[in-house]
Design a protein that fits this description.
Number of helices: 5
Strand content: 25-35%
CATH superfamily of the largest domain: Jelly Rolls
CATH class of the largest domain: Mainly Beta
Order of helices and strands: HHHHHEEEEEEEEE
Strand order of the largest sheet: 1-2-3-9-4-7
Largest sheet: 6 strands, antiparallel
Helix content: 25-40%
């Protein structure tokens, strides 16, 4: 887990005057778990990152960059300047394709998913009510489960669905997949 992530979680928690116990209640976990995350003993899952961000009233990307305000002047993001998010399973890396996403109405990112890489093995993802998600498979194959409905996407296929519906994705093939995700509103 990136050291900046653990520091930023603690920084936001103390800035917002939240105790470990209060943040744990908001995120639906134990205060011992929050303490372990802040100390770098354990890495939160993708869905837990979302819950922690919601409990801290910030975007997930803010947990990685450590700030939650901006002047919003940036509009061009060079490839070398993209923020990268490494998933805890070590099989998925996402690149944020915009900066200052919390000022935007949508959020695009590209994920490179190694064989066996998944959104979260412990639970399905649900985003805020009214959110939407668009998926475009640039390379390889990815399987989605949306409300217990299985959908296998191959190169060139797209998918559009309400983000608040429980969902999960996995690369069950033996090849790397590259996927463009677009969320509205931004979730990372």
């Amino acid at each position: 887990m990136p050291a900046e992530l653990q520091k930023n979680i603690k920084k936001f928690r103390t800035k917002k005057k939240l105790t470990l116990e209060k943040l744990a209640q908001k995120a639906g976990c134990s205060k011992a778990y929050i303490s372990q995350v802040e100390k770098g003993v354990t890495a939160p899952s993708v869905s837990m990152l979302g819950k922690l961000a919601k409990g801290l009233d910030v975007q997930v990307a803010d947990l990685f960059r450590g700030k939650d305000v901006s002047d919003g002047k940036e509009c061009c993001l060079r490839k070398a300047d993209r923020r990268k998010i490494e998933y805890p399973d070590g099989k998925t890396t996402s690149q944020l394709l915009t900066s200052e996403i919390f000022l935007k109405k949508m959020q695009p990112l590209i994920s490179t998913i190694k064989p066996g890489g998944a959104s979260d093995l412990s639970e399905k993802i649900t985003h805020i009510p009214g959110s939407e998600e668009f998926v475009f498979v640039l390379k390889g194959e990815v399987e989605f489960e949306i409300n217990a409905h299985q959908i296998k996407l191959r190169e060139g296929d797209t998918l559009y669905f309400n983000g608040d519906i429980p969902h999960h994705w996995v690369n069950s093939s033996n090849k790397i997949a590259k996927v463009l995700f677009v969320f509205t509103p931004p979730i990372w």
